[in-house]
């Protein structure tokens, strides 16, 4: 028997439909709302239970959808469109073969509503199923659909033109073949719409051109001049949504190799347009409560607080001439200033575009900017002055060289802006000053560092929460740049940061932890003074005691304590016991919950493993800071058993932090680690998988530390790890940090087991030498080079072909210890004697002059 709709429900819907045609607008509005909610109920049912609908019900719904797609009510059309897409996204495109042909046919309808409704549904299907539509699964419907959509670019209704472009746009990034075959028609049709009076159409045209720039720049290059002219106009469009889409064009163009050539002649027009887009709009100012100056007594609403992600510990080495390597796997997110407007807007896009263009054009941008900047920075209207300060911050990275002559005058002006009466000016001044922190620190401290620090610390205690946040972030950047330059002012800095503890609401407290942690990282052991510890530790421990084990605010606090423990070293001893115990408990609880969840997923929730990761990282900080003092704590806990489980966790970040802790415990209290080595080594071996860069990096480092403690007893494990290490060091595109740690560990393995490792020398000596030549002299480099020397003694033939690389690596040492220098001396002279004076002369002719000089000066060869 055929399915029948439920009579009562049907009558209700029919009545609504009848009322929706009622001339009375109030009745209509009420009906619209009801219909909308009916549609949503139906959609949610389809979403949840479509597979279980009787076939007749499913057919009925599909049929009625197609019959009513042209309903006069836009709301009903939209709801039906959503319904159709929901069914289609349930994998039903294959089992509803008539859907696409019918919708495409309905586009030809004389009736506007039918055409618009069908296009609305098609646009949603294209958004949801673009990959499927471009596959053989459906017989490549795009071959018909795309030419069809292109015809509608000329339709008399702007709504339909807009749908048509939006449909085609879904297929640009995926380079759908059907679109690539019609690419020239598409581009011509877009150009034809350049002057369209409808803002939605203009927005979609801009969006198309931005994506084509990424995907088919070859097709745009012949028209680039006119496209740029068009985009310059659109970036000033009265409709901000159009302007924002157009502004993306400059961001995308900046990443293309042709950028410089294409834009050079247009900078004079583009620069003022971008600068103008960097002002706050009136709406922004209202949303940002720009006229509210003091709000630091108002508690934060919880949804304002963005979820924070803990960044697990990665072990890196120090390089020549810098603290750490810049720009390597480490995503520093450059936080702009207006977070509560975290949606992307024209101001942010213009600032980002100016930033990337400054990086492309460098100082060539300044002649176009400087005349504008003067007028902005000293403008009486605070909104304009504020945008000038943002401009100055945006160009800091790209135009630093050219800005240097103006900084002695500009920095004091910016420091003055920190006291401006408008909070939004004070907060942007914090950000911009942080972008010039590197220069400030390079000058004599009394010139700018001291006044900047004094004012920034006042801003940390500002009455406005946005300013507090900007000042705290800026101060953290200043700390990273200034490092030990801050030591003379520590007392003053700590007084401010500790005072902020009592003043801050929830959201900014989390940023304050970061500023304290960064301070500890920057000044290191200088923080280990009784008066400083007395100021800093009580408020931190008080927070620590207030927070429950389930509270995510523990993350930033644990990260902060980890830095503090590492810096204070023995000064942290009085606080270490409760901190250590709680970390072990957090790991234990998380593992237990994960266990219960894996056995009965319907009964238990999956744990948030971040608790365990952060706890493992703080334990690493304790082990690193307290060294041998951690021995007693480890002895009285089951941390090694827990570590055995964590090292095998399914989540890479958990394994990453486990291996970091294993390395730190190996250095601090190896007797507790040694009994577990037989069980741990196979796990370490399987994690030498460069697919997970950071896991592999930390496992490699831990193996190196274990070598140094195990000595010759490492022998049984060489075959478990050496083949992987040799493979990794020879892989192309391996990140620098991983290469360096791999080289160190191979050297250490060879140091303790030369007989086992030396036979492979020829397979790794060249990448080994090149990856370690830029590392600073330190313990790790020392042990690795001793290993190489010992292995060369066992297998001198292994190094002959690549001896020039060995010479270069030796020359990278500034001051090796005497006995290591002797080892180098013997190998270099041994090689020279072996080949004879004449051959050595020929060989050393290939050396770059600087290498020749160093070897001759240090080793007399």
From TrEMBL:
SUPFAM superfamilies membership: ARM repeat
Main location: cytoplasm
Keyword check for Cytoplasm: yes
Region Disordered, annotated ranges: 294-339
GO cellular-component term (any): cytoplasm
Location in the cell: Cytoplasm
InterPro entries, sorted: ARM-like, ARM-type_fold, IMB1_TNPO1-like_TPR, Importin_beta
Biological process annotations from GO: protein import into nucleus
Biased composition (Acidic residues): 323-339
Pfam families: HEAT_EZ (PF13513), TPR_IMB1 (PF25574)
PANTHER family (alphabetical): IMPORTIN BETA
Protein name per the record: Transportin 2
């Amino acid at each position: 028997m055929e399915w029948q709709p439920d009579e009562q429900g049907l009558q209700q819907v029919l009545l609504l439909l009848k009322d929706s045609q009622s001339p009375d607008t109030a009745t209509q509005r009420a009906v619209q709302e009801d219909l909308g909610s009916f549609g949503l109920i139906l959609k949610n049912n389809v979403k949840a239970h479509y597979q279980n609908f009787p076939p007749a019900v499913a057919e009925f719904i599909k049929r009625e959808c197609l019959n009513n797609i042209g309903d006069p009510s836009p709301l009903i059309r939209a709801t039906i469109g959503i319904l159709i897409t929901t069914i289609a996204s349930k994998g039903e495109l294959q089992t509803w073969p008539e859907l696409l042909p019918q919708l495409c046919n309905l586009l030809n309808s004389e009736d506007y509503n039918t055409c618009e409704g069908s296009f609305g549904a098609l646009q949603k299907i294209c958004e949801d199923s673009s990959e499927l539509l471009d596959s053989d699964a459906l017989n490549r419907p795009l071959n018909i659909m795309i030419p069809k959509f292109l015809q509608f670019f000329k339709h008399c209704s702007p709504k339909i033109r807009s749908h048509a472009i939006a449909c085609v746009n879904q297929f640009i990034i995926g380079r759908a073949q059907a679109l690539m075959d019609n690419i020239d028609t598409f581009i011509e049709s877009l150009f034809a719409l350049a002057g369209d009076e409808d803002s939605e159409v203009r927005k979609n045209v801009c969006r198309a051109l931005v994506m084509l720039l990424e995907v088919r720049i070859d097709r745009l290059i012949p028209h680039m001049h006119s496209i740029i002219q068009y985009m310059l106009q659109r970036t000033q469009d009265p409709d901000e949504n159009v302007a924002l889409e157009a502004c993306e064009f400059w961001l995308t163009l900046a990443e293309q190799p042709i950028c410089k050539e294409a834009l050079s002649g247009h900078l004079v027009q583009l620069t003022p347009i971008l600068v103008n887009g960097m002002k706050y709009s009136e709406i922004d100012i209202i949303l940002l409560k720009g006229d509210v100056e003091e709000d630091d007594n108002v508690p934060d609403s919880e949804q304002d607080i963005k979820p924070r992600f803990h960044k697990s510990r990665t072990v890196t080495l120090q390089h020549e001439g810098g603290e750490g390597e810049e720009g390597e796997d480490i995503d520093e997110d450059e936080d702009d200033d207006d977070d509560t407007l975290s949606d992307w807007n024209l101001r942010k896009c213009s600032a980002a575009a100016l930033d990337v263009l400054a990086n492309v054009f460098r100082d060539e941008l300044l002649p176009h900017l400087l005349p504008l900047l003067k007028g902005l920075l000293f403008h009486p209207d605070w909104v304009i002055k504020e945008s000038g300060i943002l401009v100055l911050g945006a160009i800091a990275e790209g135009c630093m060289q050219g800005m240097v002559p103006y900084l002695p005058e500009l920095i004091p002006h910016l420091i003055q802006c920190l006291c401006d009466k408008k909070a939004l000016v004070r907060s942007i001044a914090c950000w911009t000053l942080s972008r010039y922190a590197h220069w400030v620190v390079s000058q004599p401290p009394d010139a700018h560092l001291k006044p900047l620090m004094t004012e920034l610390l006042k801003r940390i205690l500002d009455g406005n929460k946005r300013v507090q946040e900007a000042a705290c972030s800026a101060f953290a950047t200043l700390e990273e740049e200034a490092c030990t330059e801050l030591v003379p002012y520590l007392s003053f800095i700590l007084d401010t940061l500790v005072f902020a503890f009592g003043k801050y609401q929830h959201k900014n407290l989390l940023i304050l932890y970061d500023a304290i942690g960064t301070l500890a990282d920057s000044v290191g052991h200088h923080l280990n003074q009784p008066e400083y510890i007395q100021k800093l530790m009580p408020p931190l421990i008080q927070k620590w005691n207030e927070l429950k084990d389930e509270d995510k605010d523990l993350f930033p606090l644990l990260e902060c304590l980890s830095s503090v423990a590492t810096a204070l070293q023995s000064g942290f001893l009085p606080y270490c016991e409760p901190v250590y115990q709680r970390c072990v408990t957090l790991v234990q609880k998380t593992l237990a919950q994960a266990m219960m969840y894996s056995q009965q997923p319907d009964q238990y929730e999956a744990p948030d493993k971040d608790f365990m990761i952060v706890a493992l990282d703080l334990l690493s900080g304790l082990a690193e800071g307290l060294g041998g003092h951690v021995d007693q704590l480890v002895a009285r806990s089951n941390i090694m058993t827990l570590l055995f489980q964590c090292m095998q966790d399914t989540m890479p970040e958990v394994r990453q932090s486990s291996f970091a802790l294993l390395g730190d415990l190996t250095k601090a209290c190896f007797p507790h680690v040694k009994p577990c080595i037989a069980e741990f080594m196979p796990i370490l071996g399987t994690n030498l998988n460069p697919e997970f860069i950071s896991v592999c990096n930390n496992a490699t480092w831990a193996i190196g530390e274990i070598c140094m403690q195990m000595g010759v007893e490492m022998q049984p494990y060489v075959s478990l790890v050496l083949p992987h290490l040799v493979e990794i060091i020879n892989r192309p595109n391996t990140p620098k940090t991983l290469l360096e740690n791999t080289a160190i560990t191979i050297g250490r393995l060879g140091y303790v087991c030369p007989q086992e490792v030396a036979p492979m020398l020829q397979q790794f000596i060249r990448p080994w030498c090149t990856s370690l030549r830029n590392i600073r002299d330190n313990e790790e480099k020392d042990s690795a080079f001793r290993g190489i020397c010992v292995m060369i003694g066992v297998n001198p033939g292994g190094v002959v072909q690549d001896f020039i690389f060995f010479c270069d690596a030796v020359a990278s040492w500034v001051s090796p210890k005497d006995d290591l220098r002797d080892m180098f001396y013997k190998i270099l002279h041994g090689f020279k004697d072996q080949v004879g004076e004449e051959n050595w002369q020929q060989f050393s002719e290939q050396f770059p002059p600087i290498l020749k000089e160093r070897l001759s000066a240090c080793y007399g060869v």
